[in-house]
Design goal:
It is a single chain. By secondary structure, the protein is an alpha+beta fold. The chain has a single domain, classed as Jelly Rolls, CATH 2.60.120. The chain is globular. The protein has an eight-stranded mixed beta sheet. The longest helix has 26 residues.
Amino acid sequence: MPLETLPVLDFSRLNAGPEEASLFRDELRNAMHEVGFFYLAGHGVPPELTDAMLDISRRFFELPEDQKLAVENVHSRQFRGYTRVGGELTDGAVDWREQIDIGVERDAVEPGPGVADYWRLEGPNLWPEALPEMRKIVSEWTERLSAISLALLRAVAVSLGAPEDTFDAAFADRAFPLLKVVRYPGESDPEPKQGVGSHRDGGVLTLLLVEPGKGGLQVDYQGKWIDAPQVPGTFVVNIGEMLELATNGYLKATLHRVISPLRGTDRVSLPFFYNPALDATMPQLAVSPEFQAKARGLSVDPTSSPILETYGDNALRYRLRAHPNVVAVHHADLMNG
């Protein structure tokens, strides 16, 4: 039967008693296995926080160009900060969007003998001086979405017959979340243009919020692109390659892309990527035999790159591929090997 839209799951059922929680876990496992994408309702994030997050995002993009470029990612060894339109590549082509990347705020790790290259990603963010309140709003957003993400991981572990705390060591206190605050200026006129090229996410879980009434996200289901417009009060959730790796392909990291809005319009999008510690390897889930029998093995991303076991290796590889301008300034030594 063809899939017309993504399944909708109600997160609040996890706390509505054992029977409801069990039904939710079954739905979660099935959605992650069959589609790899779903809408998450009932998540409990206050509408006021969502409004504040969208408002501060809009205000950032309305800043004068020189203020945005003051926090451009070429000033960050960690690939944090602002990327101007056309400054990122996906699937080998230019993405038509501007964005600011915000990660977990930690001290930088100095490169040196015996220090894995991926530790270069650990460090501080770049914050726009004109919006001092942005840091607090983003911090609360990150905490809320991290808690939801960890609860989803615990639920899917149980649904697959594994211990509930399977993922805790890699995530609970050491997670490496990343928030992208993105604006897609309209380029489709009316033939569709690339906002973001076809790709799978390289991490574990992605929670996406898009401005109300805006579309553009498309999900590959059995070789056909399905539209996934914003549904009020929900996040679009999808799994990344590291969760596919942990289940030998039983759970599916799905190809998706973003079509640029029509000329004269734009679209603000907030993808939140929940990832383990940089030095974490994803635990191989002790999946029940009935599910293991249906595991598909690992898919291959569009660049034919294998999924690497240590999360930081995947994250660094993606960054090096996507931001050659930052590489030229801060990481030229990695490109000489």
